[in-house]
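Researcher: Go.
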Amino acid sequence: QVQLVESGGGLVQPGGSLRLSCAASGFTFGSYTMGWYRQAPEKEQELVTAISSGGSTYYADSVKGRCTISRDNAKNTVYLQMNSLKSEDTAVYYCHAQRGWDKYWGQGTQVTVSS
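Model: Structure:
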């Protein structure tokens, strides 16, 4: 049974930091591209960042320089370190795994940036 379980979301003040984690099980984690999507109210879902099985990374322009994605294949976990958070980063963040046509989603974790 495939599971992607996110954690680390919460309420943070503007300028603060959060580290999201996504623990994966039920598939060969190391061979999948892992990513983080987000969806804010009344906005389209956005790919925030991704990391390939080989370690190549992608960042949306909106988070470049503020976010870092990393993966620990020994722990089947992907991380998203977010710094200098802004109110516009407020969204539900979803962990995503993909290899070819195989795609899996986590249940999401809420990130709220507010003073």
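Model: The chain has a mean pLDDT of 97.
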